[in-house]
Amino acid sequence: MRTKTTIASLLAATMLVAAGTAQAETLRLLTWGSYAPEELVQKFEEEYPDIDVEVTFSNNEEMIAKLRATGGAGFDLAQPSHDRIYAAQLEYDIYKPLDLSKIDTDAMQPSLLDGVKANTTIDGEVYAVPHQWGTSGLMADVTKAPDVKGWGDLCDPAYKGKTSMRLRRTILLGMAFSMGEDPFATYSDLDKYQQLLDKVADKLIECKDNIKAYWKGGDDLSAMMLSGEIVASETWDSTAYKLFDQNKNIVFIPPETGALAWIDTFAIPRKGEADDAAYKWINFVLRPENVTIMSASTGAIASIKGAKELLPEDKKAAVNAAFTDADIDNLKFFANIPPGVEDMEGKTLEKIKAATGG
Amino acid sequence: MVQKDVRRLTLILLFAPFAMWIALLIIVPHIGMVALSLREKVAPRVYEFGLGNYIDFINEPIYWNTLLRTGSMSLLVTALALLIGFPIAYYIAKIAGNRTRGALFLLCLIPLWVSDLIRAFGWILLLRETGVISTFLQWSGLVSGPIEFLYNDVTVIIGLVYTVILFMIVPLVSTLDGMDDSLVEAGYNLGGSGFTVLRRIIVPYAMPGIVSGCIVVFMLTAGSYLTPILLGGKNSSWFTEQIYDQFITRFNWESGAAFGFLLLAFTSTVIWLGLKLSGQTLANTVAKS
User: Fold this and answer.
1) Out of B44, B66, B233, closest to residue A213 by CB
2) CA-CA distances (angstroms) from residue A311 to A235, A287, A306?
3) pTM as predicted
4) ipTM confidence
């Protein structure tokens, strides 16, 4: 009798395990460092016990390169920035259209949602929805570099050898704005954009002498800034907020021509195998109680209504120290990158790197 | 008859892993790269066969300047590695006692247990403006303000020599090890000076080791990525960085593949030239060492 029950329960247990493995799903996230905090992943797995979350950290360029290599396979949810989807989709066909009915779009801030939709709609299909937004601008140690106001101030001889920037497209656009131009407006006429890029390149080559080194990631930038080796730099706002936490003199400065704003999105790779789990993750991380956990880790502001109030206290203080309402109105959202522009910008950056101006 | 078959089977089985390695991991991917490098992008998702990527390289001075720069700096690194590595190898192989020899060899190997990345970060910690050396110099009163040692070509060369010198020392030690001491003695007995002995006896004997060491070191240096990127400054571009940028930042796999091939062709040519100029062949040097 006893053995029988044992066998029966064993059988039942095996069946349960079998059923469990049959249902278990893996959600493979391709996202930015700090965009999937451990706390949130655990909470998600508790709520949906049949979903396993696997996270790969990356950046805009590598996300596209990875998905391009496999034709959109290997990941179930990606988080590129809003301006990096249209051209990548046109050229490499790596995403699939979203089913907006499965996403809680009512909770999202309408301006961000509409902005992302407008940027990522191809043939009437929407390919991305917003997740978080933040800005690129300047940061400075206000005790040593009190006069940093605009992008051009990085080239101020007063701070010779004590400024830094990342040699990527952000600084090209920022410099163009500081020279009184609007690069996004010239996207439609690529010849004109090339002329503008040439002007920006001349300026940045001349400026090389003033730069200590080009930073490559948040870590080397933080090390240079905290040690005082540089006093002002181009930066992501989230990096500046983290440093503000350690040294109250280091603040984020929205350039007078407007900080450049990016929106990181959710997009589903073309050969993703866990769409339902992906939609669940999207709705899960945008729930107000989870937004605070996410923002604590990323330093970025969620795309839902009232998100600024949901920031953790230290980040709220940093944002308030950096932005006035006028600064927020002055934000310049990155415009969609038309095909071909990436190549022109790449060439310009190479030219600057190779020049021996400084 | 059966014995012959068995022998043949053994040969095939022993050879198979090597052949598969060469074919699947080297030849096939390279054919793919050649094919990729011969595609020209004419419009989104539309490609044409052509030499456009190679023509772009020739027309753009930035690219070939970077390649020449990478090549000449790699040659310098190779020469420095030989200059520094030769005495060390000679000491280990000929002068040190049996027991110290093992210990010295191990000491040379130890840095290799740490990854490239960590070694580069080690240099960063030492050389940065607020780093160990600069702080020490200020503390000792030799300089008045902080000095930046990082972010220039000299640092890149120091870092590269440090990374690759082991690949110079190992083949040198193994060739010098086989040299009979009586050869050197005979040289001195016949009235040769130290320099003559070095030039006429030791160096010719060590030639196989020198050539193979130089080839390995040059190839490793020209193809290295981490050290030049991490230690290099705002003006130092390295050709591998150029390839990475083409593939990842500019999504231009076609020209990235072409650049990869150009690097391979360039380094192979340099080595061929080096062998010709020094009157060596692969058969009587590398195959012997």
Assistant:
1) B233
2) 20, 13, 10
3) 0.82
4) 0.78
